Design the sequence.
C-alpha cells in the first residue's frame, strides 16, 4: 500500500476516533449519534453541486448502505448502554476486519499478500487485546458488539464495491451520507417525541456539525483508499482509530490506561508497519 494512502487512512482513523469520543462524552448517545450523522449530511450538501452524480450502478449500494448505517448507529448506542466501552468498542472494530479478511477472497476475489494478511491479523489482534482490560460487561453487550461487527463488515463490502462502481468515491460518500440521518431522526421522533428531539438538537447542534464533518471525511478517505488498495487491508488499517481513541482517553479525558492498552497500542503500531512493509 503506498505511503500516501496509508497516511490518509490514518488521518481518517484519527477523525473517526474524535467523533466517537464526542459521542462517548455526550449525555444522550443515541441522539448524539443521530446528530453526528445529520452533521455529516449538512457538510456534504454544499459540495454535491460541484461533483458528478455517481454512476447508475452505484445507487442500489447507496440505498443498502443507508439501511446498514442506520442499524450500525442503533447497535452502537445499544452496546454502549449495555456494557463497558473498553469491551464493546474493541469487539466491534476488531472483529469486523477479521470477518472481511476471512471472506474477501470469495466475495471480492481479492488476494492479500502475505505481508498484508499478517499486518491485518496483527492489527486485529492488537484491537482485541483491549477487551482483556474490560472490567465489566454483559452477555447482551457482547452480543450487540458482535452483531455490529457483522454490520460493519457488511457495509464495508457494500460501500467498497459501491465506491468502485460509482466512478467517483467522493461523490458516492457524500450522496451516501444523506439518507441515514433521515432514518435515524424518524426513528428517534417516533420513540422520543418531536419536542424532546428538538430540544436536544437546539443545545447540541454544534456537536453534530463538528462530529459529522469528521465522520464524513473519515469515511470518505477510507472509501477512496478502497479504490486504491484491497478492501480488507484498508478496513484493518482504518481500525487503528482505536489507537487514537486511547490517546484521547488518556490525554484529553484523563482516563487511566492499563498495561493492556499500552500493549494493544504497540501491537496495532506493529501491524501498521507490517502493512507498509508488505
Sequence:
Amino acid at each position: 500500500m503506498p505511503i500516501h494512502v496509508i497516511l490518509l487512512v490514518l488521518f481518517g482513523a484519527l477523525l473517526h476516533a474524535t467523533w466517537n469520543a464526542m459521542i462517548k462524552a455526550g449525555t444522550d448517545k443515541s441522539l448524539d449519534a443521530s446528530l453526528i450523522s445529520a452533521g455529516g449530511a449538512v457538510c456534504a450538501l454544499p459540495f454535491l453541486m460541484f461533483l458528478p452524480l455517481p454512476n447508475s450502478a452505484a445507487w442500489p449500494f447507496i440505498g443498502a448502505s443507508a439501511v446498514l448505517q442506520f442499524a450500525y448507529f442503533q447497535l452502537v448506542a445499544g452496546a454502549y448502554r449495555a456494557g463497558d466501552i473498553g469491551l464493546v468498542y474493541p469487539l466491534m472494530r476488531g472483529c469486523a476486519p477479521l470477518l472481511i479478511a476471512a471472506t474477501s477472497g470469495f466475495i471480492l476475489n481479492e488476494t492479500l499478500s502475505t505481508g498484508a494478511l499478517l499486518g491485518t491479523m496483527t492489527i486485529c489482534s492488537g484491537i482485541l487485546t483491549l477487551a482483556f482490560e474490560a472490567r465489566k460487561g454483559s452477555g447482551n453487550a457482547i452480543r450487540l458488539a458482535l452483531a455490529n461487527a457483522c454490520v460493519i463488515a457488511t457495509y464495508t463490502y457494500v460501500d467498497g464495491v459501491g465506491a468502485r462502481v460509482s466512478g467517483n468515491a467522493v461523490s458516492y460518500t457524500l450522496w451516501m451520507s444523506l439518507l441515514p440521518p433521515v432514518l435515524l431522526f424518524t426513528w428517534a421522533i417516533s420513540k422520543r417525541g418531536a419536542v424532546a428531539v428538538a430540544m436536544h438538537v437546539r443545545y447540541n447542534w454544534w456537536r453534530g456539525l463538528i462530529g459529522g464533518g469528521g465522520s464524513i471525511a473519515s469515511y470518505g478517505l477510507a472509501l477512496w483508499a478502497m479504490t486504491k488498495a484491497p478492501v480488507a487491508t484498508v478496513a484493518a488499517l482504518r481500525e487503528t482509530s482505536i489507537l487514537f481513541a486511547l490517546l484521547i482517553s488518556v490525554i484529553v479525558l484523563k482516563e487511566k490506561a492499563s498495561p493492556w492498552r499500552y500493549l494493544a497500542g504497540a501491537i496495532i503500531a506493529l501491524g501498521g508497519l507490517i502493512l507498509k512493509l508488505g
